[in-house]
Each structure stands twice: as C-alpha cells, then as structure tokens.
Amino acid sequence: MTLAALGDLDQLVERTMYLRFVAGADWEHHRRLQGVFADSYALKNRILYGDGLEPQGAWWLLETLDWLDENLPVPPFRESAWPEESVCWFKAEANESINRMWALTRILREHGHLVRVLKTRNPGKVLFEDDHQLVVIQWRQI
Questions:
Q1: Whole-structure pTM value
Q2: Stretch 21-42: mean pLDDT, rounded?
Q3: In the chain, what's the furthest Cα-to-Cα distance?
Q4: Strands, DSSP E only, in 1-142?
C-alpha cells in the first residue's frame, strides 16, 4: 500500500462520524439511554391535550416531528430479530435529519429535558443501514 493510499484512507475515516441524540445526564452510561423521540412524543402529547407549550415552541415541535415522520425511514425493528438493545445512530451526512434533531434537542432542553449528543466513528455492530442511519448493537465503550 502506498503512502498516498493511506492518506486517502485517513480522509475516509475522518468523514465517517455518527451521532445519537439521547435523553439523559452526562454521568449516565450511553448504553442505558434512550433516544429523544420518546421525550419528544411525550411533549407532543402535552400540546395535544392543552398542557402548556407556548405557541411558537409547539409549532416548531409539531412541524419538526411531522418532517421526521415523513422523511426519516423507520428501520424494521418489529420485523427483525434484532436484540432489544439495538439503537439508531445518524450518519453525519444526513444533514437535514440532523438539523431537525438539533431543533428537537433545543425544544426539549427549553422544557427541562436533559439531552446529550453522542458522537463516534464506530458505534457498534451494524445490523441495518440506510441513507440516514445505522441500527447497531452498541459497543460497551464509544
């Protein structure tokens, strides 16, 4: 292998980053945290039942969740034999989906939810992949 080829490999590794938006505190182990969708839909239910988000925040939350529902494929969890601890990680190049997740993160934080964004180049054993995300069994350490 030439040095030029190694340089190309370094650039490829440099670009391969994955992100996971999770609900929880910094001290909590990443494998115990769930994604932010559960908290987001709980907040959406508060809106639908008239339990207090200001109109602009409510609009942003509903619009963001609607966009994600329409544009982010749902991996086939129910049809698979994947372990229960399987989780999704966004590919760094899924720009619009990640932008929408940052919007959810901002809204959740404004309403008292703890949200972390995990980043890694190697999230775990890949079970599924599409243009936006991976489904993996996470490594113990990331």
A1: 0.79
A2: 77
A3: 64
A4: 18-23, 34-35, 87-91, 115-120, 124-129, 133-138
Quickly count: other Cβ atoms within 10 Å of residue 23's Cβ: 20
Mean of pLDDT values over 57-85: 91
> Which has the higher per-residue pLDDT, 128 or 11?
128
Within its chain, how far is the Cα of 35 from the centroid? 6
Residue 3 has pLDDT above 50, yes or no: no
Indicate the domain borders of the chain: 18-138
Q: Contact at 8 Å (CB) between 135 and 75?
A: yes
Q: Which residues contact 85 (CB under 8 A, 6 or more apart)?
A: 31, 137, 138
Whether 135 and 123 have beta carbons less than 8 Å apart is answered as no
